[in-house]
What we know:
alpha+beta, Jelly Rolls, 8-stranded antiparallel beta sheet, 5-stranded antiparallel beta sheet, 4 helices, 13 strands, 12% helix, 28% strand
Amino acid sequence: MKKVIILAIAAAAMIAASCNCPKCKKADECCNQECEQPCWGKYAAMEAAAEPNTLTEAEEADGWKLLFDGKTTEGWQSAKPVNMGKFPEGGWGITEDGLLYVFAGDGAESANGGDIITKDKYRNFVLKVDFKMTKGANSGIKYFVDPFLNTGAGSAIGCEFQILDDDNHPDAKLGVNGNRTLASLYDLIPSKHEPLKDKFGWNTAMIVVDGNHVEHWLNGEKVVEYERNNQMWDAFVDYSKYRDWPDFGNYEEGYILLQDHGHQVFFKNIKIKELSTIK
């Protein structure tokens, strides 16, 4: 009970310190008139190219880059230190219509092909990923990943945008106050999102990192917002499964990761816009 109360107080404090504008919660209502933080909803509302895994002219002009071309695994590598520089030999595939997917297994963490990470590190960015879950699926999109922190069994360590079938996977009921549910900052901050219109169809994750300010968006709705590198953040970490990992979530940069958690999940339209300066 004490843990729940402390986390609830910390969550309320973090929300109070973030953007208070009631219109800056959804992409189609973004204003940026009453916030100290910039509103990133314009990117959540950005119209995607008609052809999957391509960029529109507007995206190209705005500095977006594809992290997956729909044909090859170029730009990705194993998150296991002993295999870095190479893509896993199994556990992942690309469909004929250009979808990157992780194979179904027994549900174990990074025990099939293993997690994959980008070949480059990223600092300040807007990342968008379309994902499609299967029933009971568990996966995630991680950022600020350091693959050398955990060299043993399990997944590489980093902040995680949780991908989960909340209705059919037991992890949704674990953690504190729903902080392991879909789009949550896994085991730290719960997501508050509208019910999915098509849970097993395509949904869009967006992660914004602007210095120490971070946001999770799901289908055009901002669902998590927090500041890191402060006492409140450290308090969250101290009451999470990440408490033993040094300086968790406070790195200036890190890899981006797609998780193998032994369930089939599909990905497409993986793209990133690097922010050259903190706005």
